[in-house]
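Worked Example 4.2. Consider the chain below.
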Amino acid sequence: MYSRVLGSAPDFLLEDSYQGEKTHRKKYKPRFGSYEGTPKSLSINGVRFPYGIIPLPTFITNLRIRSNFSFVFSFDDYIGSIDIIDIKIAGFYEMNIWNEKTNIRYSYRGITGIHKHFIPKNMEKAICCTRKRRRYIRIVWDKNKDRFALVFRMKGDDVKPDLNGSFVSSYNDLQPALTSVLPFPTTRRCYVSLQKKIDADGSLFTVPNETISGKALCSLVSVRAYFKVRNVVDSVMALGNVTDNEGKECSLVFRLSNHTGFLVDSDDNNENVLFCDNQITPLPSVRITHEMGVSKKWVIQDTEGMIDLVFTPSSTRQKVISAVILEAQYNFVFGYYEGVVFTKDGRSITIKDFPGICKNIRTRL
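Applying the procedure from the previous section yields the following structure tokens:
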């Protein structure tokens, strides 16, 4: 069965390529690999000559770093996602929430102007805030105080209601987390991601219909990379409570992705992962296909026999952004998974009508 060695997450993901000094300022070479745990910082600023031998100063090459942040939650009958994109001179954020029983989906979005740091690099203590009254999102984490909090207030309109909510949990090294540092697509450039499973206390209030509070299963994903001019990515994700083939209950979170920047058929260099309770299972590279279109069935399979899933869409949203320097097409799909996944110790988990999310994103800078 497929396996991938996980080291302990270093404090910083770059190292001095000459002296090997572990200082904060002189970092040039990525520490490629997969790590268990959360680093102190996700910064990749200062990689030496990431675009070949052209001796561009780092303050120019750092402008090509793009950051993505995603918080996905499964709560009562709802599954939702808060996504933030930072391209230095502007930021885009969006919240999508879907009621799987009524098949009703609401979307709220906003844009920010020029800013210095929208998505934090510090993973020990930081705040991320949209600072918009109509579409307010505030995310705070503090490892010393063992606290994570997310608060949002979304102003509705004639079509969708006002939506307020919050998620609060602990924030420490006991929570399972996978940190990936990958070539993108060569070893000169890098792609780093942190994926963390969170059990939170959540509340959701829709004006004027209902108030819900209770336990929520959540996932935090933070990405930073030297992106290419053109990028295409397919990603699939699901989270919830299931019963395995031996009758044992577990909380399950998995996230799989295909990216044009990743090495082809790279089993050792990918960010695919499955969290079963507090166990981390690195997964091999997968093939994600939707030959009949994103609104039809998706097939997710690998060559190692650990993943065999079919995703049936239930609610699809498409968004096209055309700005001065950015053109993007987002396909955001809610639906249900059916199939089987395996953990690293051979535990088989069959899922059916398991709610989740699929994304197809095309961007050009």
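The mean pLDDT is 88. Residues 50 and 61 are 7 Å apart (CA to CA). Compare this with Example 4.1 before moving on.
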